[in-house]
Amino acid sequence: MYRILIVDNEDYVVEGLIEVFHQLPHLELEVIGAFSAKEALEWLKRTKVDIVISDIRMPGMDGMTLHREIVRYWPRCQVIFLSGFNDFGYAQRAIRGGALDYVLKTDGDEVLITAVEKAVRKLEAEIEINALIAKSKNQIETAGAALQKDFFSNMLQGDQIGQSALSRQFKELSIPLHPIVPALLVIGRVDEWAADIVYYDRCLLLYSIQNIAGEYLDTTVVQVSFVYDRFNLIWLIQPKEMNPSSIPRIQEETWAMIERFVQGTFERIQEACRELLKLKLSVALADRPAGWGELSPKFASMRSELAWGLGSGQEMLIVNKENAAGESPPFSQLHNSVYQLNRLTECLNHNLPESFNDILTEILSQGSFEQNYYMAASLILSIQPQGLNLLSSGEQVDGDRLLRPDLFASRSEAIDYLRECGNLLFDCKNRLLHEQEDELVFRVKRIIGDNLGNELSLTAIAENVNHNPSYLSRLFKQKNGVGIAEYITDCRIQRAKDMLGDPNRKIQDIAAAVGFSSVQYFYRVFKKAARFTPQEYREKLLHEHERK
């Protein structure tokens, strides 16, 4: 999905183009309108924007000045200028300044649609898959990054390093990050590998994900990334040229901008992985930078949230928030205590019950049965969400029975019960996922119903429920069969129909009450949905009432 921002000081231009682009489902656009350059800047600060269509002559700040600000916030954003004047000088300056295209308002919608399709193709073609694979092969042949991976992996596992040693290690390992500046932690997870994929191909794809991320991130930040295990990748990110001695306000503003940039950019990285590599990537992002000594608990918390997060379990994009209550997520306790059982933990994290049972059988057939049994049982009991029934019927893991294999008639019966408890855990996880996503969709619908007369962009709704816009859009459509924009329009039209039954209410007042900024736009949308104009629909209602 691409986010397109339409900027013009003429209301009818913005509203008309919003309607045009809402009718192009093949482009998968979230369309936002701004009625001034100042309002456009607020959107650019607020969320990632992929394409901007802007009038080149506007009061206050013209389109050329706005373009410079767009590039500052989102360097890969494609800009298309609109103008009511056939001025070759303006067009030439716009293209030289980096704009994608220059379209006259008199050219018609088709020309503008073609320009937007061109912008989408350029966004999709920014990364060439063959070049990525070649670059990935070179990386595999170079072992230098392995030292950095081991260093940061140990740090994430809890190794504490003094400041002087940290600075020396960064220098010796040629780590491009600053040792006294905190870092923003990002975890990426490949949700599913093909069953027949071999080790070498998996390595190529993991390095390709790193290269895709590097193409998008390196324009604005300094980052180190590495493959953590066969499913997960890690990014550690800092702003470019941050002065550690700068005043706190400047540092806070810089980090706030970087955090918005990173969150918006990982939306595009997810889409690039899906389109180019045919891989579904879930992402957990830290909500704030962490000092090097704070990375281990942050890492544990983020892996837990990624494992138990909302959604279908695939292509999640989650911003990890600090837990004010101080409660430990279900997986945090396992970070160190069951490290030796990481294969089982991976299965639980990635919702792989069949692999879990296969690995459990393998583990229990090797070494000390009692030791391995108690380790697996402890793993299951540690992960069980506190205070939650594993099944809606109220059935829970019987911890006393699970930890007493001697109570069973045979070793095989004890193993069967251990496996049954593991399956209950998977059932619980799936139920929790569905319950949480149903609750989220309910909240979104309630927000829409309560605010039909106010701004209801996807970005505004996502901010209200503290979720990423692209992820929220996918989840809502998955659960309801229609997108959020279509659902909002349907609700507005239905509310308008109800209000049109009152002959004392003016149509212009009804349009404003259901969120339309102009009567003309309301008429066009209403007629398309109801096959009647608002006035015709009102007359139809009155006629039906008189017949009764």
UniProtKB/TrEMBL annotation:
Residues 3-120 form the Response regulatory domain. Keywords: DNA-binding, Phosphoprotein, Transcription, Transcription regulation. This is DNA-binding response regulator. InterPro entries: CheY-like_superfamily (IPR011006), Homeodomain-like_sf (IPR009057), HTH_AraC (IPR018060), HTH_AraC-typ_CS (IPR018062), Sig_transdc_resp-reg_receiver (IPR001789), Tscrpt_reg_AraC-type_HTH (IPR020449). GO terms for biological process: phosphorelay signal transduction system. The modification 4-aspartylphosphate is found at D55. It comes from the Bacteria. Pfam families: HTH_18, Response_reg. The keyword DNA-binding applies. PROSITE patterns: HTH_ARAC_FAMILY_1, HTH_ARAC_FAMILY_2, RESPONSE_REGULATORY. Residues 442-540 form the HTH araC/xylS-type domain. GO terms for molecular function: DNA-binding transcription factor activity; sequence-specific DNA binding.
